[in-house]
Structure formats: C-alpha cells, structure tokens
Specification:
Elements lengths: L2 H10 L5 H9 L20 E4 L2 E3 L2 H11 L6 E5 L5 H10 L3 E5 L3 H13 L5 E4 L13 E6 L14 E11 L4 E9 L2 E10 L8
Parallel strand pairs: 3-4, 3-6, 4-5, 6-7
Antiparallel strand pairs: 1-2, 7-8, 8-9
Bound molecules: S-adenosyl-L-homocysteine.
C-alpha cells in the first residue's frame, strides 16, 4: 500500500472526513516509526515501535479520529502515547486546543517527545505515568481516547469527561470491541464501532 491508495480507500468508503485526510497528509507517519521500517510507513497495519508497543494501523487511527468528532479548542486526554503519532494528529485537529497524553513506559514517552519536536507540534503534553485511571490534574476533558485495550468498560473515567463528551476505548481481552461512550445528561449512550486488536493496558 502507499499513501495515495490508502486515501483513495478511505474516500471511496467514506471512512473519515476530508479534514482528517488533510491532517494525515500533513503529519508524516514515517517520523514516528523506527528507521528500519520507513518503507513500510503506509502499509495498512500496525508497526512495532519496541517495548511491546505498536503504532496503530492507519485505517484504525482515522476511524477513531472520526468517531471522536474532534473540534477546534477541544481538550483531549489520550491514554497510551506510544510513538506520539495519534496525539500529533489529534493536536492538529483541535489546535489551539490541547492534548494530554499518558505513557507508562519512560523510554517511549521520551521518544514520543522527540518525534513531536521533529514535526513541530507544541500543543501536546506527554505525561509519563499509568493513565488507567485517567489524569485528574487537567479534567474535565471534551474527549478521552484509549489506544491500549481495556479489560472492562472504563466507566470510572466518565467523571473526567464533560457533559456531551466522548470516551473511546477498545474493550476486551484478546480481541476488542471499539466502544464509543457519549456522556449525556440522562446517562451514557454506548455504540460499538466493531472489532479491533490493541496491546493491553498495563497497570502499575
Ligand atoms: N497511540 C500510539 C499507539 C499506542 S500503543 C501511537 O500513536 O503510536 C499502546 C501504548 O499504550 C503503548 O505505548 C503502551 O506502553 C501504552 N500503555 C499501556 N498501558 C498504559 C497505561 N496504563 N498508561 C499509559 N500508557 C499505557
């Protein structure tokens, strides 16, 4: 696959908005993967970034960005920084809003920081800690997104979400359902976006 075929596939199947495609073109995935894998940057599959982590498959990423319905000025929490790529795309979509992203592995938090510098993105704050309970310091968020698999629906994080906010999380043990939770005044609305596979969320 190459970049153009991916984009063509997304357009034909109405996977995501033109705005997301514009940002995907702008922030180059090759800046977030190990040098040895550079020629695989636009394969539509996850790639290993070490420490048992992966940079997610491009199509999965744009499906998630679309589901988050990101708006300018949104304050977003991501759990699982990995390479920093997803955080970078979110940051461009919400700027001048801000992305807080937590990463449990110190080395990955550090390299994500460097990757974001390379692409000159400033509205991402990386926090090297377990994000499984969210990040109370900066709540409430407009959107919360897990990029590591939760064993159960993370209802506890709804407390850190604004009303009408969206929480997106892959939930399940070996294979996950991508769940979109919308926090309404009357209660939580849950939609499933289908099956995906993510690395599991670690706990301290
Ligand atoms: N969003 C990333 C891909 C994430 S892979 C990208 O765009 O590249 C999942 C990441 O979640 C891994 O880096 C893993 O180390 C991290 N992770 C796992 N459990 C975590 C936890 N409890 N808190 C924060 N990060 C966690």
């Amino acid at each position: 696959m190459d970049k153009e075929s991916l984009i063509k596939y997304w357009k034909e199947n109405k996977i995501c908005s033109d705005e997301i495609i514009k940002i995907f073109k702008k922030i180059k995935r090759e800046n977030f993967i190990p040098k040895l894998l550079k020629n695989e940057a636009y394969e539509d599959r996850p790639l290993s970034i070490g420490y048992n982590a992966t940079i997610s498959q491009p199509t999965t990423i744009v499906i998630m960005l679309q589901a988050l319905n990101l708006k300018k000025n949104d304050k977003v929490l991501e759990i699982g920084t990995g390479s920093g790529y997803n955080a970078a795309l979110i940051a461009e979509l919400v700027k001048p809003g801000i992305v807080y992203t937590t990463e449990i592995i110190k080395e990955l938090a550090k390299s994500a920081e460097n990757n974001l510098k390379k692409v000159k993105i400033k509205n991402v704050k990386i926090i090297n800690k377990d994000g499984s309970k969210g990040l109370q310091e900066y709540e409430p968020y407009d959107k919360i997104v897990f990029t590591a698999a939760c064993k159960e629906i993370p209802y506890n994080l709804l407390d850190q979400l604004k009303e009408d906010g969206i929480l997106l999380a892959p939930v399940g043990e070996y294979q996950q359902k991508m769940l979109k939770l919308i926090k309404k005044k009357e209660g939580v609305e849950i939609q499933s976006l289908g099956d995906f596979v993510f690395v599991p969320l670690q706990k301290d």
